[in-house]
Design goal:
With 216 residues, the protein is an alpha/beta fold. Helices cover 35% and strands 14% of the residues. The chain contains 9 helices and 6 strands; from the N terminus they run H-H-H-E-H-H-E-H-E-H-E-H-E-E-H. A 6-stranded parallel beta sheet has the order 3-2-1-4-5-6. It is globular, with a radius of gyration of 17 Å.
């Protein structure tokens, strides 16, 4: 399992065991960006409207979904979208959660069919043609800094490119960083909105509202 996780993070096994994730020292003379960053918060109603009006949706689950035990609510939302002929699939990062395969197991337990669930390499090429991407409790595995910031602690780590979707909603408890404790630039991109709160409560509300709109 350790080897699988190291490969997925593009990191050497010795570095992971003995080094951990370390923030590199600032380069001398490097400019510090103190510009205040502004994020946009979504409501359940606005997120539900976007989902119900989409033709294609990708859901990216993470550790936050597992902690909130929101997998059944997530499956309910996916089923509601599928019944309305909206393409709904799941994008899974190899190390999402705390062990490889954790998201796959949780979704299977919630009754999500295997053919709805795609690995990162399969789903990434489709994200730029996706209407809505809904990220549920995932952070580092969707952090664009891995591709955009050269001296970032997770630089080079393969990530789910959720920012390429036409619209991206992040469902998180707060704006705090993930396990790597670094800022996620995706939170502040023009096509991103934050739906803050408990993952299960928010997903339950979202599923109810989506069903209401689609039945409308």
């Amino acid at each position: 399992l350790t080897k699988i996780m190291c490969d997925a993070m593009n990191r050497d096994i010795i570095n992971v065991i003995f080094g951990g994730i370390k923030v590199p020292a600032k380069k001398e003379g490097a400019a510090i960006d103190d510009t205040p960053k502004v994020h946009v918060e979504a409501s359940v109603d606005s997120a539900a409207s976007a989902l119900a009006g989409a033709k294609s949706v990708v859901i990216v689950p993470g550790y936050g979904m597992a902690v909130a035990r929101a997998q059944s609510a997530v499956a309910d939302l996916a089923n509601a979208l599928r019944k309305a002929d909206i393409e709904c699939r799941f994008g899974i990062h190899p190390v999402a959660g705390r062990m490889p395969g954790q998201m796959n197991v949780l979704l299977a337990e919630a009754g999500v069919p295997y053919d709805w669930v795609l690995e990162m390499e399969e789903i990434n090429p489709d994200l730029e043609n996706t209407d809505v991407c809904l990220v549920i409790g995932a952070n580092d595995i969707t952090n664009s800094a891995a591709e955009e910031v050269e001296d970032c602690p997770i630089a080079g780590m393969p990530v789910l490119q959720v920012w390429k979707a036409k619209k991206t909603f992040y469902m998180k408890r707060s704006m705090a960083g993930g396990y790597a404790d670094i800022e996620n630039p995706v939170f502040y991109k023009e096509n991103t909105e934050m739906l803050l709160g408990d993952a299960k409560e928010r997903t339950d509300e979202l599923a109810r509202k989506v069903k209401e709109i689609l039945a409308g």
